[in-house]
Amino acid sequence: MDAKQTGLERNLAEILKRAADVACQIQAIEQGSGTPHFDEIEMPAHEVGRRLSCLVQASRAGEVAAEQDTDIDCPDCGRSCHVEINKREVHSMDGPLELIETVAHCRRCRRSFFPSA
Questions:
Q1: Is the model's pTM score more than 0.85?
Q2: What b/e sequence results for 76-93 when a residue is b if at least 16 CB atoms lie within 10 Å of its CB, and e otherwise?
Q3: What are the boundaries of each domain within the chain?
Q4: Which residues 6+ apart lie within 8 Å of 37 measured at CB?
């Protein structure tokens, strides 16, 4: 692992620790006094993880789309096709998110394809 990645990993660990602290404070407010059953701790914690997952998926997909060329060859006929960036809602295993993706349409083949896939 190079120095940049090590620094990013350290930064992520710190941010996650802060997020966990805030999530614990929210849980404590919502649960009030008394001793919660462990599933009352686990389920909200899992929901925080799902929310983070959706944010990461949407952000990374947007980065991948932004890195794509503006024109790409059709995988069937080889004709150069213009690449557009579209938004759509998808339902990942962790929940719904708005996905930014690239799509190209080949007029010759009359098909669309996803260059970032």
A1: no
A2: eeeeebebeeeeeeeeee
A3: 3-113
A4: none
